[in-house]
Amino acid sequence: MTAHDLYLLSPMLSLAALGILVILLDLVVPRRTPVQALAFAGLAVPAFFVVVQLVDLDRSAVANLVSDGSVLASTLSVDRFSSFFSLVVLACAAVIVLGSTDYLQFIDRNHGEFFGLILMSAAGMMLMVSATELITIYVALELTTLPLAALGALLMSSRSAEAGMKFLIIGAISSAIMLYGMALIFGYTGSTTLPGIAAGISESAGQIAGQATGGGLPAGSYAPLLGMVLLVVGFGFKLSAVPFQMWVPDVYEGAPTPVVAFLSVASKAAAFGLVLRFFYTGFGELDLDWGLLLAILAAASMTVGNLAAIAQSNIKRLLGYSTIAHAGYILIGVAAVAQGGETTGPNSVLFYLAAYAATNLTAFIAIILISNRVQSDRIDDYSGLVRRAPLLAVALTLALVALIGVPPTGIFVAKIYVFTAAVNSGLTWLAVLGVVNSVVSAYYYVRVIRVMFTGEAESSERIPTALAGRFALLVAAAVVVWLGVLPNPVLAAAESAVSSIPGIGLR
Q1: What is the model's pTM?
Q2: Confidence of residue 283 (pLDDT cuts 50, 70, 90)
Q3: What's 461's DSSP letter?
């Protein structure tokens, strides 16, 4: 491994080292505050390396990994696309570390493990969005998933253990399905790199066309199609898209709330980043209408997620079904690109992920601060909350309104871009279905708001919150509004990130 390799891996390596250091510090420091402070402040190091690499992208090609002795050649791509998602993941980790202060006050053990596993999983996510080789992608997925499974069971209660076990089993199944799909792709193309896969598919296309003139396709020609379907199934579990969403409600209900928050935003963003790079770089030459498959998944996810959320009485389960619905909205943008010719699609996906991350973090941090004091996640127990904690009630209301897609919030702008991309790509029916689902979602979001503002509070006692938690909440809420009022900087960053993936905006 060369020095250049270490430089390219510096954000991931520094983040993993920070996780180990946090765990070691927890062994010698009895108090939680220094451990939490190190976990938060230490995130500046990987963020610094990401920014340095972004600056170098303007001066030299750090994405060019071909050098003497390099072990990363054709396995990793350091570009604006990976940097965009890396910064989103780091920002989510920072907010979760701060926002978990109140939650951890009621847990007297495993503080170092909590922060360390969060950081380890974040390192896996950053590697995931940079990987351009099948084995590297698989390793990154496992590095992301295994710490999250351990975090899900961190409370050592029956529900928490069930959540961790379900996430671990479903993660193992999805990984096995993806691995089998990868094996088929490798067998067909003879390459494990995404550019090599694209070249193999392109080279075989003419041969298959010639062999098919006599009637029917040769049996081996179905390998990339079957491999792609298996990969869609595996990625569907990671994206919590229907019909692969069965794990979401139970995991969201049983896992620690800060873990759920991190899983719902950072993990989803990294998974969508991987999907965009994987399919448009590796399968850009495969002449199949797989945009229709993604459109069907988007439609099913939106509809099932919103209809199931209506009947929920637990706010974490409600947001679990909400995240399924929003996976469907985001898939609209992915399907728009796959359908061909739409350059707004990938930009809208990246912007939607940023807006959704800020919005869901606002909602979950508010829930952390509320639920720890009322000792309940039932929506009815939020009755009259505005009189006990006006700041928390207003912040949660802002997040819920934003999830509907009401201006002036970031998701409103994101939905406009996503639906426009769908219409321009000939998926008008999908855009209309998205609008209808947005209207349906207003019912269960507004129900929570109505309980907080019109219900009778069971207690007049004020709900105290830690300064760090309030700061994290205000920052996330401010970003929600900023993305709705001044979206241009993030949209420009998204456009720049997408342009670094060859051919993604030209389909």
Answers
A1: 0.91
A2: low
A3: -
